[in-house]
């Protein structure tokens, strides 16, 4: 059984969590440019000095939020390729996992803030793209394994992965991010998932 942290550590961690939660609320409601450390401190019920003790500035705080966002992006362990299972069933599970993430309100709203902030900072935008690519490595790994097994005719697993991701995001991510459309309902998710997987398999098998 792990040792329990002493009370000051717990208090410090609680303050840090309160600051991050307040920052998330501020970024979601006001946007990146309008959010200030003063506003974050006020929302967190902490002094500005306390906020700066945890984070040297708004950029570092925003980076920590993005780190947590991408760290939880998969929403579960990556699904491994299984030789004994139909390809379609496995791909539908992978796509369903992706759709659960894309339908998460907190993820969508923070992604919207992150993308808006990235417009004003090419470096931040490149970091976001890199992190999103990292979270999608599970599908690339699965496609590569299926190709090695001879069940998919794929020369470039990364390219094929981006193709399938693009089919999904074209309906379940970008319209919600850029046009503020509502998330897909279960019937729409099913339609998007099945049509994308069937198109993918029709080309690569």
From TrEMBL:
<dbReference type="InterPro" id="IPR009057">
    <property type="entry name" value="Homeodomain-like_sf"/>
</dbReference>
<dbReference type="InterPro" id="IPR036271">
    <property type="entry name" value="Tet_transcr_reg_TetR-rel_C_sf"/>
</dbReference>
<dbReference type="Pfam" id="PF14246">
    <property type="entry name" value="TetR_C_7"/>
</dbReference>
<dbReference type="InterPro" id="IPR050109">
    <property type="entry name" value="HTH-type_TetR-like_transc_reg"/>
</dbReference>
<dbReference type="InterPro" id="IPR023772">
    <property type="entry name" value="DNA-bd_HTH_TetR-type_CS"/>
</dbReference>
<dbReference type="Pfam" id="PF00440">
    <property type="entry name" value="TetR_N"/>
</dbReference>
<feature type="domain" description="HTH tetR-type">
    <location>
        <begin position="13"/>
        <end position="73"/>
    </location>
</feature>
<protein>
    <submittedName>
        <fullName>TetR/AcrR family transcriptional regulator</fullName>
    </submittedName>
</protein>
<dbReference type="InterPro" id="IPR039536">
    <property type="entry name" value="TetR_C_Proteobacteria"/>
</dbReference>
<feature type="DNA-binding region" description="H-T-H motif">
    <location>
        <begin position="36"/>
        <end position="55"/>
    </location>
</feature>
<keyword id="KW-0238">DNA-binding</keyword>
<dbReference type="InterPro" id="IPR001647">
    <property type="entry name" value="HTH_TetR"/>
</dbReference>
